[in-house]
Amino acid sequence: MQWETVIGLEIHVQLATQSKIFSGASTAYGAEPNTQACAVDLGLPGVLPVLNKEAVKMAAMFGFAVDATVAERSVFARKNYFYPDSPKGYQISQFELPIVEHGKLEIVLNNGECKTIGITRAHLEEDAGKSLHEEFPDSTGIDLNRCGTPLIEIVSEPDMRSAEEAVAYMKKIHSIVRYLGISDGNMQEGSFRCDANVSMRPKGQKEFGTRTETKNLNSFRFVERAINHEIERQIDVLEDGGEVVQETRLYDANKDETRSMRSKEEANDYRYFPDPDLLPVVINSEELEAIKKELPELPAAKNARFKQSYELNDYDAENLVMDKDTADYFENIVNVGNVKAKLAANWVLGELTAALNQHDIEIMNSPVSAKMMSELLIRIEDNTLSNKIAKEVFHAMWAGEGSVDEIIEAKGLKQITDSSEIEALVDQVIADNPEQVEQYKSGKDKVFGFFVGQVMKLSKGKANPQQVNELLKAKLQ
Amino acid sequence: MYDLSVSQLAEGLRNGDFSSVELTQHCVERMQKFSDLNAFITELGERAILQAQNADKLIKEKNHGPLTGVPIATKDIFCMYGVKTSCGSKMLDSFIAPYDATVTHKLDQAGCVTLGRTNMDEFAMGSSNETSYYGPVKNPWNKDYVPGGSSGGSAAAVAARIAPLATGTDTGGSIRQPAALCGITGLKPTYGRVSRYGMIAYASSLDQGGPFGASAEDCAYLLQAMAGFDEKDSTSLDKAVPDYTQSLNDSIKGKVIGIPEEYFSEGLGVGVKEIIQTAITWYEQQGCEIKSISLPNTDLAIPAYYVIAPAECSSNLSRYDGVRFGYRCDDPKDMRDLYDRSRSEAFGDEVKRRIMIGTYALSAGYYDAYYLKAQQIRHLISDDFKKAFEQVDVILGPTTPEPAFKIGEKTNDPVTMYLSDIYTISINLAGLPAISIPCGQQGGLPVGMQLIGNYFAEETLLNFAHQYQLDTDWHQQIPPGFNE
Fold first, then answer.
1. Hey, which of A134, B146, B192, B441 would disulfide with B128, CB 3.0 to 4.6 Å?
2. Sheet holding A100-108, edge to edge
3. Does this complex have an ipTM over 0.85?
4. Contacts of residue A78 in chain B, CB cutoff 8 Å?
């Protein structure tokens, strides 16, 4: 049988507010356990939540960025469940009336196809604390620092049909929240994480199959692997004549498998009801308009602008705008040094990206800054460096050996552009290779490349290739 | 000194007739002498003397307000830094609050001297003060009788003239009902008038703190200190607080008093009915217009309340899980066992009953039938009052159907117990202010009348109550054995 995969994602994004969503405690990551949890975060008797307006604004920004409806009135509700890292015994979330509804997002797949993914809703809620098991044999430690960190939970429609689509969608959401500056998107620290709902159905069937929910996937790679694993597992179950059980599953990255956490029967009844401690969140239309006006340029608009102003192709534009820092880096090179856009794009997406990936470094921490990169590219454009030598200089700069000009100077890498110097090299090569000269003169054009190679070799790569070409052509005539 | 009004106390302190230390000592002695009432969970005598010394200094420096140096008893539901705040529960018997409630802070600022922390029904759930982990409070008028609840300790302390003032909280009648049963004055302000921050939650959308005193005038002074917007409470209202003593002497002539027929139907004791009629006649004689009105949804108030309040409490009390503070069972074998036993061992029956009712009412499949329906009733009840206040200035009726009942009389019959709040509960559902003032006695037990006002009409209520008290002395009656 031919199976079709149906995927919906729930993405949790921590908002980059200074303080928590309902208290004044700091949201900074990595502090000593329980040093950033105030009376409200601890759920002490008598404390009350007070809404952080910044979080509301950020959620609204997200809504506008995905063409959604941002509600003028949304309501916080209590989601009741007992867990040690949930100090109040309920999580303040939004249920019936979320702040964001009916959005959509276009994703570009590897084959260049575009697809629109629906966004059902995005609601505001507070993050829970953390239970620490490793450090405490026979007991559980509880760190409530994360408690009350603002989150938006973004729920997609079940519109994705493969792990590739799911990852493309997740990357796009990641890109948007980074563009908006509403989250640091740091996946290792849990600022951006995802639950994947996966089900299978025979191709052509309209009804959905039974779904499973795989929890807490905190990297693009894990999402891809967990979904693919789940697809295989479900197909195996179905083809063996079994039935998929509706359940919550956990992805184990070490074993690369998903396993059951709890079934539907064991699922909590969260007993949602409107939180009587908080008034409905009301944003009037003027406030919404003001938020809309403050929105920065988003990937789609940037993509269009890059193609228009810099005459970049689809591939370059799409890849440059995916990450805002990359796009900014690119624009800095082009604008600072008046460097040709295509050359800059090639270097950013080529040599720089490769080096960043190899060393697992974020572009904002790149040892070769945009300014250094533009200085390097200027030396290519003014013929001081050939493309090949420029790569050598780039790696020297990466290793901290100095500025472009210092490295060129120190290593004697300056391109030879003095015609008489090149002429001498050309003459020598012609004199040393009479046989090849004969061949060329008898019409074997291919040998021309041999001469170029020989001259470059003799100059240790420093001769300006264009001049070499021209001189060779003239001398061999 | 125990029979002086707040303004007389303030004057005495100001004139140097007595110091706050002397006054406080006097009150502390009475607190100890009448400890058999069980009105206090924690006595703070020594701390009070220190506070009084400080107050005397402020008075000497002429840096004082009307309440500087005046002793007060506070309900054990308002968190007080460094002091046990038990909420009447075994669950919080070990809980020393690490912060001050806004009300606690405000009373501190006003210079009040806290004598002690008053007994109450566990987590404010009860109408007789019998659900307290610390045992029942006795009614000073007759120690075999309940003082009402949940703020029973506060009402008894004021009735026994241990403290001239006390704080209470009112979710379904917890200030007005004990005020009525103990023969004192108690006011439940408009929802949002007094900050709930640091006031341990029972039912968040209904809870409201307020004052107890012998008279409306005394209550005006205390309300003045308690009321006001608080940015830490999102449900508190950013509305200026008027001077509550200013309007006490306004004329009530020509004002319209609504008498809701539903408050005088079956269920109201004959004796209480007669006493309330006498009070109505008094107002009529003052030139008020008496108008019969209808609050047609009154009979739905108790069922709606007993869905909404338990629903909220089931969630509010989830934080008592034995993990971070409060009671923890011995040797839990796992997390589930920790929750189960900590909560089973430390909550009393009434609290458990309401948590179960509330959990049920919010459950999937029942939410619409119970919680949502109850919220709809709440709107209907509010509308009833809204219509009434288009025609009248205040609404007058009994606070309770009967005077105090005997300790133990209703403990096995929760529904009958719940019915003792029949006239008070709908006011909480609507969020309105109401005051209970003593207006007679039946068989040696006080009877209270309730005046209900429109939103933020505390001034009107205090004015109506004060005018009545200028001409009557029910509020000056001191229980036998305590007037010495």
1. B146
2. A69-70, A100-108, A114-126, A150-156, A3-14, A192-202, A212-217, A247-252, A257-263
3. yes
4. 315
